[in-house]
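Following up on my earlier thread - several people asked me to post the actual chain instead of describing it. Fair enough. Here it is, all 118 residues.
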Amino acid sequence: MTAELPEGFEDLMPFIDWARPTELGRNEKRWSVTLDESQKFYDAMLARGPAALEYLNQFSLENISGADRALLDMCLALAEAAATIEMYEDPQPKYVFPIQRFVPVHDKWPLTGNRGEK
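Reply from S.P.:
Thanks for posting it. Predicted structure:
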């Protein structure tokens, strides 16, 4: 199954791999890319984020799915990319816990849609 985005957000398709359903998955993505890749994603989402959030505001979190959920996950991934760009300037910063040791307990929360995915 190929991930999709809602109509009007096709320009974000090059970044669809950032659409991870859990915080751990989004952090693993952040740690696995180069600073340049993070910067490109960050810039694209910073520009499109307001429109994405306005679009997503029509849905309740309990009912969001499919392409809409992928867009939401990309908005959430912006927070992870922001840490790389704004704070660390390194996708694998020193002096922080390795991402493999970071296990957010709220990734088990029902609204995360966690189905064992990263």
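The chain has a mean pLDDT of 82. That should answer part of your original question.
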